[in-house]
Specification:
- Keywords: Coiled coil, Signal.
- Belongs to the membrane fusion protein (MFP) (TC 8.A.1) family.
- By secondary structure, the protein is an alpha+beta fold.
- It folds into two domains: 22-56 and 178-284, Elongation Factor Tu (Ef-tu), domain 3 (Beta Barrel); 69-155.
- The protein has five helices and twelve strands.
- The strands form two sheets. The protein has a six-stranded antiparallel β-barrel.
Length: 285
């Protein structure tokens, strides 16, 4: 083999070594998009839990109901007050009568059949009834706010799913006391599995070669099959000890067939193509 051929071979080998890390699939981990421990915002005894471990849930679905007989009664009372028409109708009728009385007294005064004092008294009565009508309207508005407040208090005793996902675990049961606060035992643990999150660690040599929104192929360990994911995060802070940086990808999972919490391999076609071009360029030198 000629020295020139050896030189070309070494150059190609060095290029492959430098880019080989980018060209080969990396280890990765498939994880849920988010994990939530569902706790109550208020303290109360659990009346019903509508889901079990492994159940699929939809965003807004009722999962847990605390005992709320007193709150439901308060809602009914507040609604009755907000819908009451008697006081408002009574004030309106009195105002209509007072207004007609003012018109009659003015006509009588114009014809000198009634004194000015009587006319003034009728006008004062009309103003009083106007104030009573305003007070009745304000009272009804306040009753509407109280009704909304009572509904909000009742709603706090109903726990709903914050997203579409799965029930990972159920820690409490009906009859248990749900305690408010982050340090208290959660009722349910939920995970979002659409989309899934793929976490990979890459060598520094790959930095700058991967772009946001680029695609990569993910192969779950033990399941086979190739699934396309999209790069959503590229870490800007490196790990100096290992000479690596992190990359996060979103993996669509609308069918829910892919599980979370398993290892995988991720291959970036763009890096493979760059490595191949670098090797060809080195071989041509």
């Amino acid at each position: 083999m000629s020295p020139r051929s050896v030189s070309r071979g070494l150059a190609a080998a060095f290029a492959a070594a430098a880019c080989g890390a980018q060209a080969n699939p990396y280890d990765c981990l498939i994880m849920p998009s988010q994990t939530v421990e569902l706790r109550s915002a208020v303290e109360g005894v659990i009346e019903k839990i509508h889901v079990q471990r492994g159940d699929r849930v939809k965003a807004g679905q009722v999962l847990v109901q605390l005992e709320s007989a007193a709150e439901r009664s308060a809602v009914q009372l507040a609604r009755s007050r907000s819908e009451a028409q008697g006081r408002l109708a009574s004030a309106q009728n009195r105002l209509d009568y007072a207004s007609k009385k003012v018109e009659r007294t003015r006509q009588l005064q114009a014809n000198a059949f009634l004194s000015a004092q009587a006319s003034d008294e009728a006008e004062a009565e009309r103003r009083i009834t106007e104030a009573e009508l305003r007070d009745a309207r304000e009272t009804r508005e306040q009753a509407a706010y109280e009704y909304q407040h009572a509904q909000n208090l009742l709603e706090r005793r109903i726990l709903r799913s914050p997203f579409d996902g799965l029930v990972l675990d159920r820690m409490l049961n009906p009859g248990d006391l749900a305690e408010a606060g982050t340090g208290r035992k959660p009722i349910l643990k939920l995970v979002q599995v659409e989309p899934l999150r793929v976490e990979a660690v890459l060598p520094l040599a790959a930095y700058g070669r991967i772009k946001l929104r680029s695609t990569a192929d993910v192969v779950p360990e033990g399941l086979g099959g190739k699934h396309q994911a999209v790069v959503t995060v590229i870490d800007q802070v490196f790990d100096s000890a290992s000479g690596t940086f992190g990359v996060r990808l979103d993996l669509p999972n609308a069918s829910g067939k892919l599980p979370a919490g398993i290892r995988c391999k991720v291959d970036f076609p763009g890096l493979r193509e760059q490595a191949a071009r670098a090797a060809r360029a080195a071989a041509d030198k």
